[in-house]
Amino acid sequence: MRSVRIGVDTGGTFTDVVAVDEQTGEILTTKTPSTPANPANGFIASIEKLGELDVSSIVHGTTVATNQLLEDRIANLGFITTEGFEYVLEIARQSVPDGYGNSYFWVKPPRIVPVHLVKTVGGRLDHLGAEVRPFSEEQATEVARWFKSKGVTAIGVCFLHSYANPEHERRMREVLWREHPEAVISLSSDVLREYREYERSVTTLVDAAVKPAMRGYIANLSNRLGMPFSVMKSNGGVLSAREVVNQPITTVLSGPAAGALGAALIASTAGHKSVITLDGGGTSTDVAVVIDGEPSITTEGSIGRYPCKIPMIDIITVGAGGGSIAWISPEGTLKVGPRSAGADPGPLCYGRGGTEVTVTDAHVFLGRIPPHLLGGEIPLDADATRTGIQALADKLGLTPERTATGILEISAFNQSNAIRQLTVKRGLDVRDFPLVTFGGSGPLLACRLIDILGLPAVVVPRDPGNVSAFGLLTVDVKNDYVRTYVTRDLSLGKAAEIFHDLEHQAGEALDREGFDDPIYLRSADLRYYGQAYEVRVTAPAGEIDAAWQADVIERFHEAHQKLYGYAYRDDPRHGVEWVNLRVSGIGPITRPGIRRLEKAGEGATSVRPVHFDETRDTPIHQRAALGPGAAIKGPAVIEEYGSTIPVHPGFTAKVDEYGNVEIRRD
């Protein structure tokens, strides 16, 4: 029996699986419909579909935490903070989405915890962690008993300046354990030991909010699997399920992060070091930027309306998937998304009771995808699609063809806007980056994105619907640790002490994961004195001395120049201020190799009517039958098990030596 490593990515519509044979490197892929009511069912079904295998390890990309936040399913959550700071969530930040021109219309959203579920406890630390007023055990006991009486079982604790000294928070946890043992507790000093109390509070509360659901899901899955498994984290690493339940917030971009990493490895192998990645699923589209083989990392991310300052791959998500619903606004204009038909009931063509036209229905109507999905496993109801699009076209006063084309055009512009947010808004020229597109619906709009954005090329990997699951098998175990240390006069001894402490924490966690020889990566957040926000730069390993300090400061000047167009390298009026010191502890794994495509496989070419600029009989190619060097001129359609590539007129698709399809305008 073959020994395999398995990656399972649970998406909104499909659960994708990749198995890598540890002896031969052979890759097996499959998909099953997701089961939103209980994602564990789809997970187990997908593994069973692979058949009898000797499974050595499983890595999972999950959307449990993400969906809970995106759908605002947060209840029964309490907050404990320092006396006098009960309105920290209400005050928040002064920023208004979409700028101040929107301030007249913008309505402040409800807080993650309403005011009546916020309680305070006496005690105060200064910004260096020294105790100004002692912790009030009496008030802490009253608060714990009050939450117990109200049945609040998820509680976040964030005291002022606990990043400098966690002692008061830990004493609060001991009181909660004693007085309210049923409570699930998150401490800000465990979740995010970094200053800025509002972001630290919300990040801690998000962690507390998703803990019960994640713990229940992981426990259910562990019992049904009967073996340990790992979970993908937002920072581009993995962690064992038994560890990740203690900080479930680290999984909020679990699946999208795996897709970006898998696409980065595939693109680098094919010679594209810097690319844009686009993961098109059934519910949403996720976009990331890869520079020199590494996806960009941010700590300024958010999930839905909640800022989360944990390190995560910089991903923009838009509601522009295959299941995105087309609808008519009150003004009579056609809109697409962000609402999705999901996996159940799904698009009209699924025949499961869906009543609204989706992006997938538009592709079916125009003939751009086959009359079935997954190699015939999911037959599509073309008649239901025609009826739905005709009804929508009648309301708009357009032909059905114009209506379906318009749906796809709007979806393409929604995706292109997400790409611009990660490129143009960050000073990058989108025309410098090939696009790596994957996911079941990702390749469907490749040609339109080339035209809209001026992209040099689009690369579609082999088995594009399973790239995220493949990415799960390419990532190391990774933990991130941070400590705020704000100073213009860096004490080398203090910096060495903090880095040593952070590396010790990382080493303990990796030791529990079974790694004897971990790798430690240092970084630091710096700014010019008087600035409000920082720039993160890598910091070298080795002895922390004057040369090390000068090296980090020079890296900061270079990064600031690149980001903002100026630096104060030689201006003594603008001193450099250190803000945060960081360590990433990495336990390296053996990555699966990406094998060259030796020759074409089997698959016959056929013809069916497809509408691009007009409806005409169009060649339909089976991707398996295309060997290295094969070139397909549009109009044409390239089909495979998990996805489809429409090649528009005026474009050519070529197969490279690794089996990727590269699309360029003629």
From TrEMBL:
Pfam families given in the database record: Hydant_A_C, Hydant_A_N, Hydantoinase_A
Residue span(s) of domain Hydantoinase A/oxoprolinase: 200-480
Residue span(s) of domain Hydantoinase/oxoprolinase N-terminal: 5-177
Name the UniProt record assigns to this protein: Hydantoinase/oxoprolinase family protein
Taxonomic path: Bacteria, Bacillati, Actinomycetota, Actinomycetes, Streptosporangiales
Acetophenone carboxylase-like C-terminal domain residues: 497-658
